[in-house]
Amino acid sequence: MTTVLTASSREAYRDTLLAAMPLDDRLVCLDSDTGLFLGKDFGTAADRYLNLGIAEQNLLGAAAGLARCGRIPFVNTMATFASTRALETVKIDLSYAHLPVRIAATHSGLSAGNLGPTHHSLEDLAIMRLLPGMTVLVPADAAATVALFEQCRDLPGPVYLRLDRVPTPTLPVDLPPIQIGRAQPLRQGSDLLLVCCGPYPVQLAVQAAELLAARGIEAAVLNMHTVKPLDEQALAGSEAPVVTIEEHWRTGGLGSAVAEALAETGRRVLRVGVPDRFVSMAGDQRFLLERSGITAESIEHAALRALGR
Amino acid sequence: MTELMAYPATTAPPGLQAGSGPSVAATDDLAERAIRVRERIIEMCAGSTGGHLGGSMSLVEILLVLYFDVLRMDPDAPADPARDLLLLSKGHGVLCLYAVLAERGFLPAASLADYGRPGGPFMAHPNPALPGVEMPSGALGHGLPIGVGAALDARLSGSDRRVVVVLGDGELQEGSVWEAAMAASSLKLSGLTAVVDRNRLQITGTTESVIGLEPLEERWRAFGWTVRAVDGHDPGELREALTVPPELDRPTVVLARTTKGRGLPYVEDRLVSHFAKLGERERRRALAAVRTGSRP
User: Quick one: fold of B19-292?
Assistant: First the structure.
């Protein structure tokens, strides 16, 4: 696994928002006592930073009210609080009302590590992608976070931006530019298609593709940073079996979205994700991923099964 | 940040500014409107789907006073960015909202006949696609947090926009209401007003027999709000409570004592009024009751 850890996506988000706020009066930063902005200076935008405390229903509801009046609120909370505790508010006041609130959902997947299942978020992609009009973004590194932040700013509806807690590996800088709704091809190959999202799944998919290449199997890799709307076009145009990789329960997330999209085509889809149980043990993000079977080797095995080998 | 907003005198008709007391002419006018609104609620409950009768009837004077005497809005420009904002958090009071929006000119009165028609926009909870409906509601406990955000925007913008959230009393059992109540006072949102339709009944019994709300005035005060308790069927008292400028740095809650099913003496204060689908005989009886037995 790549070991160059630069910035976490949540720090990239924080710094981008800090720079953007003074230049755009519409932006409001609503915090929920996360500490992400502790000691940070919003400059002339200081009055548009509001810490609404530990009350996520009010947090998301207030964001809807601000958006209803023409603001673009960026809401900082943990992924699991946005997608489960405050879900009804997100469903009705953001999705149904179709308001431009941006949820900056930190601590996604297993990135809360040691904090345990109360703070892990292995359900959020399933929940958020169900909601009509929601754009679901999963940047794989800090640079992608910055790009997606800028691109989502003027979208008319709500956005779920899935962020990590701790630094994660960075992708090479010479990749095709990232664009909301368009999968980013990371590798070409005609035998197999690996579809992934998020920092570790993307890194691991690329590593698995290299392992497969050593066996003479050429796998394409797609970084599906936009889980909704899903780039179904990028999935079409090939008969190759598909393996999905995500830091999420195997049910409901990226793998399910891809399987739904391909269900009527007869293509084989295998899903690599966290098994259907809580990851209730100590350990950091990388340790918990390995213990959950999200490794380059497990992707390689899934790929071989998908190819009937 | 802007200074504490001052409400322009134009929020109330001449003679009705704070402390001037109700005007007889305006009260009479409103009494006639109240009868019409109740008739429309009855007609909608006599349609194919029925509707939330009791909690709509208890709201009539509250919404009429807000829409006619308090809030700045223009039916010809329902999206005017300078308008005041009314959020009906107790979305099941929608029949009253539809009827008052028609009375105020946001909706053609004839369009209410469309209530419940399959495929039509008139659902049993507020449809944000309709002019004058600011947000969807129906699931309880959503309005006050939204109101906090809207009031924050007004303050950030230096606008004197008023934000009024109308809540049911049973709704106060939702925790999100109190999250927002805490935030509103902590943020000193004096531009935010909550109105509680205190009809004392929820589906299965009195609020006090389910999960008690009392002492309600003390609870709101403890959360940092100015409390004004009024007779929610007295337009003069409502008007005064809703037009007196807020206390410095404090949001205001108007606790409006109301009667569920108001206007229909034979169901008033009874659980049976919560939801009704009126047959022809019941419809006629109800129309006669609000026309002949109405109290202003």
Answer: Rossmann fold (3.40.50)
